[in-house]
Amino acid sequence: MTVRVHQPREDAEFAFILARADVPVLAYFHGVWPKAVAACKEMEPLVREVADAYQGRLIVVRADIARCPGPVRRYGVTGAPSFVLIDRGEATAAGSGPMARTALGAFLDAHL
């Protein structure tokens, strides 16, 4: 069974996923502090839907901001939830805050 959404537990695992990616990566950064929890929980089903809908065109990575501080700094993530589209290690697009399915789909379609 293929992993739909990768969940790295540390910076090195995040870097490993990026290094092995042969398609762009959608990095979804989530947080567990009180102000971020509700918005991030709201995004969880959407992140799984995107992983299914864009399978083969995109790899989805769900990264905890506290566990993966390196990518947070590298890609300029300042809050949660945040999305960064990464191609060959470089950010090509970014968005933050909760998004509707149509908005996230439009974001991806515009940059893939």
Structural write-up:
By secondary structure, this protein is an alpha/beta fold. The chain has helices spanning 11-20, 34-53, 69-74, 101-111; strands at residues 5-6, 25-30, 59-64, 82-87, 90-96. Helix content is 42%, strand content 24%. The chain has a 5-stranded mixed sheet with strand order 1-3-2-4-5, with helices on both faces. β2 (25-30), α2 and β3 (59-64) form a beta-alpha-beta unit. The longest helix has 20 residues, at 34-53.
Number of helices: 4
Order of helices and strands: EHEHEHEEH
Could you tell me the mean pLDDT? Answer: 94
Residues in β-strands, percent: 15-25%
Overall SS class: alpha/beta
Low-pLDDT residue intervals, each spanning 5 or more residues: none
In total, how many beta strands? 5
* Alpha-carbon Rg, integer: 13 Å
Oligomer: single chain
Report the major sheet.
5 strands, mixed
Q: Give the termini separation.
A: 25 Å
Query: How much helical structure, as a percent, in the residues?
Result: 40-55%
Domain Thioredoxin: 10-109
Organism: Streptomyces yaizuensis
InterPro entries: Thioredoxin-like_sf, Thioredoxin_domain
Protein name: Thioredoxin domain-containing protein
Summarize the structure.
The chain is an alpha/beta fold. 42% of the residues lie in helices and 24% in strands. Strands 1-3-2-4-5 form a 5-stranded mixed sheet, sandwiched between helices.
